[in-house]
Amino acid sequence: MRFPTLLFALLLPISVWGQNRDIRAAWYVDGNIEKNENRSHTALEAFEQGSSVVYATNEVYLILTQLRMNKTSGVIMDDDRRQTGVNSALLADKVSRVRVEECAVTSHVSNADGITTVGEGTTAIVQKGTVTTNKSGSAGIVAINGSVITDFKTEVNTASNQSPAFLAIDGGKIDIAESFGRCAGQASPLFHSSGDIYATKCRFVSGKWTIGNVENGTLTLVNNDLKAGGISGFLVYSTKDSDVKANLILSKNTMSVAEGPLFLVTNVDDATITVAENNKISLKSNELMSVRSDDWGKKGSNGGHAVFNVEKQSLSGSIDVDSISSLQVNLLKKGKLNGQINAVENRCAQVRVKLAAGSSWTSKGDSYLTSIEFDQPLAKGLKQLKGKHTIYYDPADPANAALEGKEYKTGGGMLRPLK
Description:
With 419 residues, the protein is mainly β. The chain has two helices and 45 strands.
């Protein structure tokens, strides 16, 4: 990106108070004073505690072109900052609209995000620039409480811990296309959604954490090139002890996972994971999915509960479900699973498998299920089970009524009731 040196004018880095006494900025843009503002080819800086570089509020329409916005100091320790966006380098709220074109937004401060929008009706369009954060707790692009961000061809990099590239909170929405970058720190996923994030044709690397965290929200990834370096490919979870819904949709992506399972599901009551249409997946481990208790939630009731849909996709790896968790595996049209499901008998775990016509499951070892069902007649359904191993089912479970508690030959092994 080119910034014409001769055209830069340095705005004095003095923060000013606006009508919102809790938020201050080097440039405070108030729609109650002027409805439309724009600035280009300027370097702006904020250094005071809690101060943004640019703050757009009260229904202003703001256009920023080829600006350098630097948040250089002013660490803030505020538990509510992720509700207000305070201390972000660029902040918009109260039904404001911001266009950020070919700008460089940089935060050098802990707990200081790059670009943040807050509230219903507040929007931002970010394109062909850079967003960089260098300290912990500093996300790149953040949409909060119903606000909407559209991001296009932007380089987004975060350097430290707990710093996702994209963060949607409380119904915030982010649409991303053709962007790229890296998250280098621990607990720094590329995408963290407790709102709604959609990304397509992006290239990102998470050096030490996941591709995505889904926490009471939706994450949809289509036709991206993504890499994860730690814990798992995706973490579907909740940090709270309350009802949580999570939705993860993957289609036509190329994904590489260096550690742990592709999916780790924990402390969540209602998760749906859908993998469809020819994702190319590289796993260093043989773990496809782990549904279990972990570090989040109340011990003894912090298992995972999920539905796993596979359609027009072949997946390989083991699936494990612990005694306080449950999983419904739906192999839909042209869905293929190659892997063992629960290698050890555990009657407390709820593990159910349903196969549609045109799908198949090759068990790579003996598997233990609560139930198994087929969409087509039993004789045809049994042929969908491949591999020279035994699949055990619970004859007392009502979902297995069609099996009548009997033993059957499958397409290579046996389907057998648990004694």
